[in-house]
Amino acid sequence: MVTIFLLDGNTIRQYFTKNPLQCVLMLAQYDRCDIAPYILQLSTLNLDVFRIAKYKSLSKPQQASLLPSDTIPIRPLSHLIKALGFTVGVGTVAFTAAVISDCERQSLQHRLFFSTEFLAASGLMKPNPSGTKDFRLWWSQLTDGDKCAFYLVGVNLAVFLLWKVKGLNGIMWRYFSNSFASKSLCVPMALSVFSHYSAVHLALNMYVVLSFTSVAVNNFLGPDQFWAVFLTAGVMSSFSGIAHKAVLRSPIRAVGASGAILGMLGYTCMKIPEARLKILFVPGFDFSARSAIIGVLLFDIAGLLLRFFSEVIVCMVSVSFSYNFSNIIRFRMFDHAAHIGGTLFGVFYALVGQDLIWNRFGRRVEHAYGHLRRQ
To answer: Does the residue 275 lie in any domain?
Structure first.
């Protein structure tokens, strides 16, 4: 996930009144070029007054345009219980539906074993070479992993295009960006997993999807279990991200499938820990899958720690020298907490979760579903 920064002067005043130190720490996160001209600057001699430099010079409509209409004051920490319940609920529903779908899929494949579609896909019946028939044959010859990857890319691309429709901006901000300072708390935790605001972010994530999905689906999960794991990892990632923001009292918004993708990456790498991986555009350098996951976790943990210490240092320096360091503080591109949550879920699922959830819980769901069908 990446973070999207949104502030206004009244929000800053409100935060500063309640907790001046926390307000300064939060401001250290904001230096994006399109937001920087509107960020408050430290006063010359003390911290008890913030001056609104460019913000006051804007008209009311211009000021309002800086914030989505659904922005609210940061929620109390108790709302994390609601978010946790949503996370558990989504995971339970996702795996229950996946088990039922897997049962139906196996039953359907058994019934269609000698059907016309099976014969055509097997090459035992000569297909019609015209248009739609060619596409159906090509699609039928793809593996389940390839199909899941194409579906995932298609959904993410569609949501990305919706971001470009100006009339939908209000809906997209409210339901497709994850924040602890939004009117909608739970639904965006799931929908933001398929949401990308930047074309570069989308392209990088979809490259990883196309690289790993077929391996995970074809060798370990199958299509139904894959969707359950992907969605649960994504929501777990979203929960980790907003929990971190809730503790920091940060209104930053996040979008992207990175947490869910890292969950799948963590799962796959733990299943084949000795597999050799390479970095794109870095020839001659490879490493084990286990090392990759350790590296990812260390990178995100370091990102969290360095962010905290950098904000404390900036606060102390700003107080001491009364200087605005907004041009020095780097833009926090990654939602490290969300990445850690998604990765750890993938590792957990590979080591113990698959047996606990898919096998044991799945058998109970399958038994209950079979009993309902017989009635």
So the answer is: yes
Q: Taking a C-beta distance cutoff of 8 angstroms, is the pair 249, 25 a contact? A: no
2-54 pLDDT, tens digit each: 554 444 445 555 554 555 445 544 554 444 333 333 333 333 323 333 333 34
Q: Is residue 87 part of a domain?
A: yes
* Residues belonging to the active site: 258, 339
Region for residue 222 given its phi and psi (left: phi exceeds 0; alpha: psi -120 to 50; beta: otherwise): left
163 within 8 A of 63, measured Cβ to Cβ: no
129 in any annotated domain: yes
Cα separation, 147 vs 242, whole angstroms: 32
Closest by CA to 348, choosing from 277, 276, 271, is 271
Total number of domains in the chain: 1
Which residues make beta-bridge pairs with 299?
A: none
Whether residue 288 lies inside any domain: the answer is yes
The string of pLDDT tens digits covering residues 68-121 is: 666 778 888 899 999 999 999 999 999 999 999 988 887 765 455 444 454 455
What integer best gives the mean pLDDT of the chain? 75
CATH number at residue 297: 1.20.1540.10
Domain containing 160 equals: 77-308+333-374
pTM above 0.90?
A: no
Residue at token pair 């990654």: 334
